[in-house]
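seq:
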Amino acid sequence: MAATVRDVAKLANVSLGTVSRYLNGYQLREDNRLKVEQAIQASGFKENMLAQAVRRNRSMMIGVIIPQYRAVFFMAITTILEQIFEQKNYSLLLCNYENDRHRLQQKLRFAKERLVDGLIVFPSYADAGSLPILEEFAAEDIPVVFIDQLLPGFETDSVIVDNAHASFRAVEQLIFNKHTRIAIVNGSPDVYVYRERLRGYYDAMRTYNLPVESGWVKEGSFIEPGEYVMIESLFDLPQPPTAIYATNYFATIGTVLALHELRLNIPHDVSVIGFDRFDPIDVIEPPLTLVEQPLERMAQTAADLLLQRMRGDHKDFPQVVTLNTKMVMRESVRAL
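struct:
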């Protein structure tokens, strides 16, 4: 009886998916490639003509899974990734999971079924439910690189920024300008990035022995205009803040709009430090002091790691690369 794919997998001690990927022309880790090739030779397995043609002619594809299309940060990095991978003759399969954990699992399954060569994920809303499908990627030699955060329980290469330190420095800048009543407009506490940025805020306030009033911490997506009311409520407090630190692009825009609605002047009435610098934000007057993320380095580092793993090079796996942000000092902070 002729040997089957199952026989090859059993002899090589790898998964059926790994043998399938080899037969479809995908790059395996070097040790797995050797085991599969030796098992094929030992078992006498013969590929059919169609499988051989697929191996020779298949297209190369990278999956990129992002939390939402309308978030400028994710799309900016994705645009850079596409430029990088196009130069290597890879196409992009772009998926959006709309900040939904269950939808993320569906998109991971979709990318795997499309036989991507490698996968880049922004796992902002990932949880334990995503682990089984991610483990399938690992078992079948499909490299996965995370951007923007880690996922406990799954070891893979990741590219993140110094979120807590970036927040510490932003708040410290306000403190150096004699502000003691500092509010934070933050993203969802369910997301690692925003937990880290909030931690940096608290660390700075604690380091300089400054109290934090519970009403000074505002959390939300700040995409919908109705959420700006949360920011406006800061100024109903008995001790309203003299400064606001906004921890993402939408929070920054929401803060500016809320202050405009209240007819409060930046920086005369309230100092502001925002997060992320994209072209539209530069039209705001006065120009905002911002924390700027290294978007090009994040994309290039993630692409380099993925390409390295796809070549079968697993040296120093897993790598967690932490990149530095920078402060762009402009006119939205006033010394008291």
